[in-house]
Write a structure and sequence with these properties.
Helix content is 16%, strand content 37%. It is α/β, with parallel strands linked by helices. The strands form two sheets. The chain has a four-stranded mixed beta sheet, covered by helices on one side. The protein has a four-stranded mixed beta sheet with strand order 5-8-7-6, covered by helices on one side.
Length: 125
């Protein structure tokens, strides 16, 4: 019997926690938690709209270098997602048409890379 595995939280390394939190909230992420545990540990959890998986930013959470994280997210409509990013003042790439789906990329203020994918056979993202 195989148990169910669900990705819950992905650490995203950032240099300025408040700037990153404001950026992610501006593009629609919900701030679930923002706690300073002690001087060297601040934990901020943000969840993309409709997602069961969140990201964690903060101090003392990861040893990864800011700008090195790459994340891919499924969306129902690449054009609508790109427009939402542009309306929020985010520089989003052009739509990349591939035989298996449509993709649009953007980076957070630290350079962490995000790719949004819209796949026809997954119309609800």
């Amino acid at each position: 019997m195989t148990s169910t595995w669900k990705i819950e939280l992905i650490p995203v390394p950032v240099t300025d926690v408040d700037r990153a939190k404001a950026f992610y909230e501006r593009i629609g992420f919900i701030a679930d938690h923002d706690h300073t545990i002690h001087e060297g540990l601040r934990f901020v959890q943000l969840t993309p709209p409709g997602s069961a998986c969140s990201i964690a930013i903060g101090r003392g959470l990861t040893e990864k270098t800011p700008g090195t994280q790459e994340i891919q997210v499924v969306v129902p409509d690449a054009d609508a997602a790109r427009e939402q990013l542009i309306e929020a003042g985010v520089e989003a790439g052009e739509i990349d048409e591939q035989p298996w789906g449509r993709f649009v990329g953007f980076r957070d203020p630290d350079g962490n890379s995000w790719t949004l994918q819209a796949i026809e056979y997954r119309p609800n993202g």
